[in-house]
Design brief:
The chain is α+β, with helices and mostly antiparallel strands. Helices cover 39% and strands 13% of the residues. The protein is built from 4 helices and 7 strands, in the order E-H-E-E-E-E-H-E-E-H-H. A 3-stranded antiparallel beta sheet has the order 1-5-2. The chain has a two-stranded antiparallel ribbon with strand order 3-4. Helix 3 runs antiparallel to helix 4.
Length: 194
């Protein structure tokens, strides 16, 4: 068996006419890209939830599938149950791609400190209360580790209660943008009149 490899990114080219929503196509470049893929023996992961991954953002947009993921047969044999999904284009004119496994591994939650927390007035109170709460341990190192763990748990809970509304709104906004991205593939979008 040979080396497994994956090739992904914004290729800025298409290899099929259906990868663009208009007929302004450079067939010579399209043919060269197709031949390069064939010569490399690359297989493409099919995008499951979208047709295009880029938009020029105009009133009558040009939509193109520029972002792609390819692999060789060794990679495909090693990980056959991989899926490719497009995410919301809320931050770019490209839709980010998510390459994932259909068999979900158990998720391990790790603590992530957010820098902006220190500017929230109640932050120091939460840290102080968590750090001074009683913890078990037979050695100073075990007590220290348990204090860190208790403080992380308290900050995680505090963050969820304090910022859950904003996080929910962000998730909802990204879902709306993803649906608008998908709708734009089949019809022009009309701006709302104020």
């Amino acid at each position: 068996m040979g080396t497994t490899w994956l090739c992904l990114g914004d290729f800025n080219l298409i290899y099929e006419a259906r990868d663009k929503n208009n007929n302004n196509i450079n067939r010579r470049f399209m043919d060269l890209f197709r031949r390069a893929l064939d010569a490399s023996e690359l297989m493409e992961f099919r995008l499951q939830n979208r047709r295009y991954t880029w938009s020029n953002g105009r009133a009558r947009p040009t939509l193109v599938r520029l972002d792609r993921v390819f692999c060789n047969k060794e990679w495909d044999a090693l990980l056959p149950s991989v899926t490719l999904q497009a995410l919301s284009s809320s931050l770019s004119d490209h839709s980010p791609l998510l390459l994932g496994s259909q068999q979900q591994a158990p998720r391990v939650f790790s603590f992530k400190f957010e820098q902006f927390w220190i500017r929230v007035p109640t932050f120091l109170d939460i840290v102080s209360a968590a750090w001074s709460s009683p913890v078990r341990g037979t050695s100073p190192l075990m007590v220290f580790c348990n204090r860190l763990s208790t403080t992380a748990r308290s900050l995680r809970h505090w963050s969820r209660t304090l910022f859950s509304e904003a996080r929910t709104q962000l998730l909802m906004a990204n879902e709306v943008i993803l649906r608008l991205d998908a709708a734009q593939e089949s019809r022009p979008l009309i701006p709302l009149k104020s």
